Amino acid sequence: MKISEIPTPAYVVDEGKLTENLGILKGVQERTGCKILLAQKAFSMFSEYPLIGKYLSGTTASGLYEARLGHEEMGKENHIFSPAYRESEIDEITGICDHVIFNSFSQLERFRAHCQGKTSIGLRVNPECSTQGDHAIYDPCAPGSRLGVTQETFERQLKKAAARSKSTEAECAAAQTPADGILDGVEGLHFHTLCEQNSDDLETTLRAVEQRFGTYLKHMKWLNMGGGHHITRADYDIGRLERCICHMRDTYDLDIYLEPGEAVALNAGYLVTEVMDIVENGGIQTLILDASAACHMPDVLEMPYRPPLRGSGQPGEMPYTYRLSSCTCLAGDIIGDYSFDQEMHPGDRLYFEDMAIYSMVKNNTFNGIALPSIWAMEPAEGLTEPGKSQVRVRSTDERQLPSGECRLVKAFRYEDFKGRLS
After folding, report:
1. Which of 88, 200, 355, 377 could form a disulfide with 404 if both were Cys (CB 3.0 to 4.6 A apart)?
2. pLDDT tens-digit profile of 278-335?
3. How many CB atoms are closer than 10 A to CB 264?
4. Residue 257: which residues within 8 A CB-CB, separation 6 or more?
5. Is beta strand 35-39 parallel, antiparallel or unpaired with respect to 255-258?
């Protein structure tokens, strides 16, 4: 079945573009010796994990369920970071994760004994170096951030531990046990400060990391540079990234990890939707779609951003401008204003691009809106390059759509909606 024929709404993952991205990431690994992990928070379509596992070193998780998914479906290196862990889950986590990264010294001290001898322990640090620009909601280095240990907190905790160790030294000697150091068992440091950024921002961040934590890196085995690296974007400076990796690897004798999520499936997905109705109010014509920003691409409202749409232009750029919305009751469920080179009608199809990432993992059934089905599209010769939102094609012109065969991976029914509620 072709993408123009599948029932809507539907997510379609382009396996050709996914493979292209994975090849770029594999090249970085091969040239630098680093290990790149799939950040499942951005893309968790585990039917593609066998393909991803051929190129990447493993997965990283934000909680137990993601950790289980990576362990069960990819079965390679499996890392986890969470701002806090549950007592009831920590033993299962240490049983399936190769690295467990803590967000605070209190969490480290609470769960250290659960990890030692089972997994490599890491500590997340906050280099206090903001490079986010306007996206403060995604800035882990914003003032008052709860994510990562700052230099001041790091050094204060070390001093407290040293004072405590001195006071108990005689006690420990009598018991023939060493005084515990607060960093005992910690083998790596982790930072994650980027969001859809180029390697110049990584370079800036690394200077801050070295300035604040370089002394401690000399005693570590690994450094995890987190995610947010847009490595597979066309203008990304891969050479600079590789120099950054090699500098940290060679200067501190470290194994280097990166955890991109978006870069793995960047521009590798579509959300296919159909026009259900057209309403007009105040001179604005609004297309009512069977896809929703609130339900199917929440980042449009949260970030916010204007998703690329195949065959469209900016408002007023083409002859016909419409506002795109959905059939939910949320007045603000607005995707954006787009123009087209033809008048739109109910039954026309639209193809949102770059919809593999932060879509399936964040969608919901608000208003009882059905979840889009999930499809995989096989590579085909002569594809128009995905991700080009300004390609001027008619929405009903199937000749310029991707031509690979689509196979159904998952369809959602009423039972999936009902089963979430009670």
Report:
1. 377
2. 999 999 999 999 999 999 999 999 988 999 999 999 999 999 999 999 999 999 999 9
3. 28
4. 34, 35, 36, 37, 79, 99, 222, 223, 224, 225
5. parallel
